[in-house]
Design brief:
The protein is an alpha+beta fold. The chain has four helices and 18 strands.
Length: about 250
């Protein structure tokens, strides 16, 4: 038996949006502790790891661990129809996920077909990061927008006391630096210099669901996958992105 109720359906919509920005299908693994999803994007360049604890829900009933495979794009489309002050009740119903939106004196129900997810990811990349950066998400979103005017790729570089970004394209170049004490960075721990280049489109999709004012944490190691994570309420979203390597 599976029955989950969340009093603010828009919150669950925001959580799902942070996943569907990278992957189009995935399996929610539901246990008594909460809901977990790990999935690679179709190109294999990035990975998302999501967890939301049971305390985020007003009702959380699961008899045993279950896996609910869904087309996340279809799920996101349904959740986009969430209205103000609606709760959401989710149940399993004969290989379908029942989603009932409960408003003031109103109810409407969708049933979404469950699917077998082809690729299952159990582990996150094991990288011993040389630099760790903590910053509010809004400045990072602006940095990514600035770089996208010039290029499709961005270079992140961290060293003691400084975090720098650079972008190079046919139309021009961008270089931007932030001192550890300058206000944009909350914390910079660079035991060793680290530098790598990443795809801007993937980064933009990763950061866009970060709530205004929330902190983003970055793990960086030269020419290794980037780790980026933040919170959406009680939920934790972590992304990994492979570096761009020139052939």
């Amino acid at each position: 038996m599976l029955e989950i109720r969340i009093d603010n359906a828009k919150y669950w919509r925001d959580c799902v949006d942070s996943i569907v920005s990278l992957v189009d299908e995935g399996a929610f693994n539901i246990t008594t502790e909460g809901i977990t999803l790990k999935a690679m994007d179709p190109s294999g360049i990035s990975m998302v790891s999501f967890f939301i604890p049971n305390k985020a829900f007003s009702k959380f009933t699961v008899d045993k661990g279950v896996s609910v495979g869904l087309n996340l794009e279809n799920l996101s489309k349904i959740l986009s129809r969430t209205r103000d002050n609606e709760a959401l009740v989710m149940k399993d119903a004969e290989n379908k996920l029942s989603m009932e939106f409960v408003g003031q004196g109103s109810r409407r129900k969708y049933k979404l077909q469950m699917i077998d997810v082809k690729k299952s990811i159990d582990k996150e990349p094991n990288v011993d990061f040389d630099a760790k950066i903590e910053m509010i998400g809004d400045p990072l979103k602006e940095i990514i927008k600035d770089a996208s005017l010039i290029s499709s790729y961005i270079s992140f570089k961290a060293q003691k006391g400084m975090f720098a970004v650079a972008a190079h394209g046919d139309s021009g170049e961008l270089e931007e630096t932030h001192d550890a004490e300058g206000g944009v960075l909350k914390k910079l721990d660079a035991g060793k210099n680290a530098e790598a280049v990443f795809n801007l489109e993937f980064l933009e999709n990763m950061v866009k669901s970060c709530p205004t004012g929330n902190q983003i944490n970055i793990g960086l190691k030269s020419n290794e996958p980037l780790k980026l994570n933040y919170k959406i309420g009680d939920a934790s979203i972590t992304y990994f992105l492979a570096p761009y390597m020139e052939e």
